[in-house]
Amino acid sequence: MFVFCRLNFYAIEMTDWKKNIDLNRLPKHIAIIMDGNGRWAKQQGHLRVFGHENGVKSVRDITEGCVELGVKNLTLYAFSTENWSRPKEEVDFLMSLLITTLKGEIDTFNKNGIRLHAIGNLKSLPAKCYDELHDTMEKTKTNKRLNLILALSYSSYWEITEATKQIALDFKNNKIKEEEITPDLISKHLNTAPFPNPELMIRTSGEHRLSNYLLWQLAYAEFYFTDVLWPDFRKPHLADAIYDFQNRERRFGKTSEQIAAEQTQ
Ligand code: IPE
Ligand code: IPE
Ligand code: MG
User: Fold this and answer.
1) 228 within ligand 2 shell (Cβ under 6 A)
2) With a 6 A CB cut-off, is 33 part of the ligand 2 pocket?
3) What are the structural domains of the chain?
4) pLDDT digits (tens, 9 = 90+) for 208-218
5) Which of 33, 37, 210 to mutate to test the pocket of ligand 1 (most atoms within 8 A of CB)?
6) pTM of the predicted model, to two decimals?
């Protein structure tokens, strides 16, 4: 009887992971820095790549969690411009993991209404990755429940530099005037132009830095840091982050009193 009750209790815990979240006040866009794969593997006496392999399970769980909740946009930092400096074997492993994962997920994406997007210097990816990515984006392009945005070979320095070059060119060719260069125009030249700015940024593994991630887009995001390593990160951890987000006061430069007055209007 005791054993039965315990199992029953766990079953409730598992299914009720979103019980504390207000589904009417979800962040419109969540951005995650999936960090700690290597340390997770090392802790268990394995090679770093074992951590990357297990990190895919977290990607699946968190993506599914966002669909269940109704979060509309999820950006995952999968590979940074700086990550090209890692040992070649690790880079090669990550690139082939990307291909096999994408191949294996298309049906799940389509079943769950997930549309895949990618941001970053995609042309720098190996041709096989680039092709697989395009194929998956094409095959999921009519899905509407969740935009899953992979940041691949991405860095804000790269993205902002590219946007600046494009704006400079348009200016030189008399396509835009100086006074038309506004924050809105800059946003429109970034890879993230189709999506709203992230409202919540989560970084796992206890590191407190942005590592060149969405520097412009995160200007007013709430940051949530957790010591949990990415391969251990699951829906209840996502729920903790969203709960924390929902209990913050977002002031956007105003005073607390102004925000309170706006809410009673
Ligand atoms: C994040 O985990 C995955 C990528 C950067 C591709 P790490 O590989 O950075 O893991 P740690 O930080 O070394 O533990
Ligand atoms: C950031 O993690 C990039 C990704 C998660 C893809 P890193 O592990 O590469 O970041 P740093 O080098 O520790 O800042
Ligand atoms: Mg790391």
Assistant:
1) no
2) yes
3) 23-156+196-248 (3.40.1180.10)
4) 999 999 999 99
5) 37
6) 0.94
